[in-house]
Amino acid sequence: MANREFELGGINHLALVCSDMERTVEFYTGVLGMPLIKTIELPGGRGQHFFFDCGNGDCVAFFWFPGAPDGVPGISAPPGRPDQGDITSAVGSMNHVSFSVPPERFDEYYTKLRGKGVAVSPVLNHDDSEAGVTRDLHPGVFVRSFYFTDPDGILLEFACWLREFTEADVAHRPKKASDRTLPAGV
């Protein structure tokens, strides 16, 4: 399935906001091994903008703003990992960042992150069952993943596709704003 409107080459960068750039650099370079490839000091003391190479020419970038308010779990980001319950976040928020990893190294990377002291979710084998996930790896599993957070609580995922998609994989009617059910008082 090709884009017939624009020749897009993937994600140039995804820009997030951190509370401590030094700690962010330590995590993304030291724990995840992403090279820090560009640093920018914003004019007028407005902050910093740093870029990390996350593979295939794509980047994850972070802003640090001296006056940025703290995030609010459940609004600006999910309240926790998918294995811990609710993954809802607000419209316009960034729910999580998923990094593509090779299927043959998936289990190795899970063990490696745990060995670095990172709290990770159980492995999720995503399939088309009613639950959407299974403990067993079977031919219907289309992606394997696990979740963890960075020092600011940003939800991250390592995921590997296990098969090509076909037209049969696009089978659900898109929901509308009128389908939303908001809590009382919102």
From TrEMBL:
PROSITE patterns per UniProt: VOC
CDD domains listed in its UniProt record: VOC (cd06587)
Domain VOC: 10-161
Parts of the chain that traverse the membrane: none
Pfam families reported for this sequence: Glyoxalase (PF00903)
Gene3D superfamilies: 2,3-Dihydroxybiphenyl 1,2-Dioxygenase, domain 1
PANTHER family: GLYOXALASE FAMILY PROTEIN, METALLOTHIOL TRANSFERASE FOSB
Full protein name: VOC family protein
